[in-house]
Amino acid sequence: MRGNLFAVAVNLVVLTVRAERLHVLLIERGERPFLGEWALPGGFVRPDEDLVHTAGRRLGEETGADTGHAVVGHLEQLASYAAPDRDPRGRVLSVGYLAFVPDMPEPTPGGSAAASAWWPVDGTGPLAFDHDRILADGVERAKAKLEYTTLAASFCPAEFTVTDLRRVYEAVWDASLDPRNFQRKVTSTEGFLVPTAALVTGGRGRPPRLFRRGDATALHPPMLRDPHRVNDRATAAPRHDALG
Amino acid sequence: MRGNLFAVAVNLVVLTVRAERLHVLLIERGERPFLGEWALPGGFVRPDEDLVHTAGRRLGEETGADTGHAVVGHLEQLASYAAPDRDPRGRVLSVGYLAFVPDMPEPTPGGSAAASAWWPVDGTGPLAFDHDRILADGVERAKAKLEYTTLAASFCPAEFTVTDLRRVYEAVWDASLDPRNFQRKVTSTEGFLVPTAALVTGGRGRPPRLFRRGDATALHPPMLRDPHRVNDRATAAPRHDALG
DNA sequence: TCAAAAGTGTTGTCGATACACCCATGG
DNA sequence: CCATGGGTGTATCGACAACACTTTTGA
């Protein structure tokens, strides 16, 4: 068999929505190279292990699935990265995986990490290896997927309100959406949301209904990001603060 | 460095439109394993070679770019496949690449292939390795990309008519599109098509104008496949034949 | 003059936006 | 009863499907 040999790793872009902002799970490296720097969680593919199995195993370790915390979410392959000089240890190919998980308590470091934390996706410093690139690709994929799939619900807990779902879109797209039109769009899309009998009490205003995820995976017609309207929230939010 | 080692290969899903059908470039294997069976072209990643470089090199070899034939087209990474038992020789990770090329003469086998040929994508027998899966992923990606990008033009030669472009959509989607509405859509999308002064003479009917590709890469709003309308051509074509 | 293919005009429909308005709760 | 947020009704607009119609060629 011709060709030289590679070590094969999986790196995870684990996204969640916290405090109405999109966050990514990063680990502080506990070993060389890039000791002490922040990086995407990941690990090498074990013998007889398939890529998605490695990704799922590491995702569970990092998000504390072993602690009984139910992580539903979503996991899909993103792309592979194999520039010859991307790892000083030698030739390493990394397969990026993209995960969407509901908001959860602070993560517990898994693997060989010194620490782990949720970072706002636009507030990370330079990351180890080529992980800036992998992160950027993951965020872009996430933005696109919300347009034509129902995967936004993967960021939500088992039961959630329409407003919860809207905040996912707003955080991922960094845009503001009309709550009334959004409500109609998602509730009228067959199979996106399954209503429950429950209401959320205790908040201000009229109590919202609770929904579960439906069977639909595709969104027809899609919810398109208007390219002229994206990023409205960046300017709208300060204006709102000034008025309050 | 933990983890076992992999050989890393690139496999190409090279698509083109011939005789109004979507075709894929396959090679007949000239060595074991799967000697004599049909497979996607590919090759191992060389030392100091990046993935896209391997893919571009093999694409040029298979499509005869070295013969002076201008291959413009499009090349993008598709996904990686690394099931432990996918190659009987040992642990091999394959990175799939998707290529769109204009129609061209019969290919000349490159690498270690015994033969190579264009096959209709829905007429291939079972392929070697897990290449059926890679091919299916590539075709699905191609269908999706035509919706929201201008990549259909990558299947066309440097100058082409609106009808040429429509036949690309019809072949990839296996659907029939209204020529008049299609014309308006693509000619009114800023930057998709650049008109030339030339007309195509010699055919029946009014001579069509020739266009070149424009700078636009995205299609806003997208040209959506109506899920209810797909596959019309499968029934429409025989009807047309019966009438002709 | 006819057939064939390119290209334009027009109309109905559907979905999205924008926004007026009502509903249901906590203070 | 007022503020707050959930949710509905509706006018308008833009894009697209459908299809009548005109244009320009070869036979």
UniProtKB/TrEMBL annotation, chains A, B:
Which EC number(s) does the record attach to this protein?
Answer: 3.6.1.55
Basic and acidic residues: compositionally biased ranges: 223-244
Where the record annotates domain Nudix hydrolase, the positions are: 5-141
GO MF terms here are:
8-oxo-7,8-dihydrodeoxyguanosine triphosphate pyrophosphatase activity
CDD domains in the cross-refs: NUDIX_NadM_like
SUPFAM superfamilies associated with the record: Nudix, Winged helix' DNA-binding domain
Keyword annotations for this protein?
Hydrolase
Which regions span the lipid bilayer?
A: none
Region annotated Disordered, chain positions? 215-244
Q: Which domain of life is it from?
A: Bacteria
* Name the UniProt record assigns to this protein: 8-oxo-dGTP diphosphatase
